[in-house]
Amino acid sequence: MQPVNKARWQIHFCVLLWGFTAILGKLITLPAMQLVWWRMLLVSGALLLVPRVWRGLKAMPAKLRWGYAGIGVLVSLHWLTFYAAIKLANASVGATCIALGPVFLSLVEPWIARRKFDPRELLIGVAVVPGVAMVVGGVPMDMRMGIVVGALSALLVALFSAFNKRMVEHGDPLTVTCIELGTGTLFLTLLAPLLPHAGPAFVLPSLHDAALLTVLSFGCTLLPFALALVALRHMSAFGTQMVTNLEPVYAIVLAILLLGEQRQLDGWFYAGVAVILGAVFIHPLLTRKQAPASQPELLGTAESHNVVE
């Protein structure tokens, strides 16, 4: 098999695994705070066992470590709101909201990356508005708070992705991911007592939750991250983005097959999803780049992996 074709299949497999993160978020009975705390702790703890990470930490200037630590705070808030949206609504709603990430990115990246704003990106943002309206109309009233929290999660993923892009050339991907997730774990530990009804960050999970957390942390985070690092060497940025844009599609299909969520949502929801995803797929067509994908560290920390350019 040609390296490019093999890489394409690897990325599709990674996207499928990422699609399971929303499903596992619904199946794990822990609240969002404890779920995210355990996931970040397990992944960062595993990365600390890799000698390459320690070499990267020693070689990285302190100022840069602090920069990635700040991004880690945004990562933790993104994951916290993503899983909170799933708990407040369902996996389909969470996956749909996270598809707004590229739209928010097109608006915030020029400001953060200090580049000229492209009017075409504003058109993409405007194009999703009818889709969002249809999604809201197709969701029961008691789930609409999940949409608000999910949209906040998409904004957060756009913010930390834009900052990551600004610092992309300055650190080893595994080391960057370890710093960001390790900092996120510490931040949530300090944040939990300040949030009403959140409870302590450390709660011993049941055997059922522990098994699912293991799958989430290693099967749906570290495994696809490692595969993606290899696959991105053989794929263009455009090809990678078009494949990773399928993540919400996989998540919604899995939610229908495994959780039967189509019974909770009506046709307006799925029509809105089609509009949002249509805009997301049009965006890379309008701003097509053929340079090799060079931002694998984003794959280690985002649910919305379609923000890689």
TrEMBL record:
It comes from the Bacteria. The keyword Transmembrane helix applies. GO terms for cellular component: membrane. Keywords: Membrane, Transmembrane, Transmembrane helix. This is Membrane protein. Residues 14-136, 145-281 form the EamA domain. The lineage of its organism: Bacteria, Pseudomonadati, Pseudomonadota, Gammaproteobacteria, Lysobacterales. The chain crosses the membrane at residues 12-30, 36-54, 66-86, 92-113, 122-139, 145-162, 174-195, 210-232, 244-261, 267-286. Pfam families: EamA.
